[in-house]
Amino acid sequence: MSDAAVDQGRRTWIAITCGAGAVGGAAVAVPFVSTFAPSERARAAGAPVEVDISKLAPGDRMTVEWRGKPVWILRRTPEQIEQLKSLDGQLADPNSERTAYPIPEYAKNTGRSIKPEFLVVIGICTHLGCSPGGVAKGSGNASVPADWPGGFLCPCHGSTFDLAGRVYKNKPAPDNLEVPPHMYLSDTVLLIGEDKKA
Ligand code: FES
């Protein structure tokens, strides 16, 4: 993950559309769509958010808003996926067994994800709610070890997380980053906030 990619992830708030607002092709459907499309208030209250991930390059991260929270979508490289397997001994809860932030069953694996390539987590530190930032492998950042494989650092009290959002041992943050309910509508479209079809 490059610094540029990290910056892009922090800065870029992707335009979002509500999942229930998708417009069908038939003109007759329009009045119904406008009738039932969720209002801004409904969206703020937690309507699912549809996200196009087709332009997310390997190693890059994007941020979308769901329920007023930043949700990160990271596209991991094959090297980053492989590295996750060697970190268990350094992590506080490598298998996501703690229950403060219950993880969906489909994300209870090493990468904490449906597809190994894509991580979907809420970018809020589980200690006191600060916003961690990305720290790339080889960045030379003095707040992480020299052999840092890439991950996230919370600037408030120094908690560190790997590229699956798993917190390292002996850090103030008590839990891994939260995985929101989500599902794939297609290979390139994610739905955040819902994990089963109505
Ligand atoms: S809020 Fe993140 S370490 Fe304290």
From TrEMBL:
It is an enzyme of class 7 (translocase). It comes from Rubrivivax benzoatilyticus. InterPro entries: Rieske_2Fe-2S, Rieske_2Fe-2S_sf, Rieske_Fe-S_prot, Rieske_Fe-S_prot_C, TAT_signal, Ubiquinol_cyt_c_Rdtase_Fe-S-su. Its cofactor is [2Fe-2S] cluster. The gene is petA. It holds the Pfam family Rieske. Binds 1 [2Fe-2S] cluster per subunit. This is Ubiquinol-cytochrome c reductase iron-sulfur subunit. The main subunits of complex b-c1 are: cytochrome b, cytochrome c1 and the Rieske protein. Keywords: 2Fe-2S, Disulfide bond, Electron transport, Iron, Iron-sulfur, Membrane, Metal-binding, Transmembrane, Transmembrane helix, Transport. Residues 89-191 form the Rieske domain. CDD domains: Rieske_cytochrome_bc1 (cd03470). The chain crosses the membrane at residues 12-33. The Rieske protein is a high potential 2Fe-2S protein.
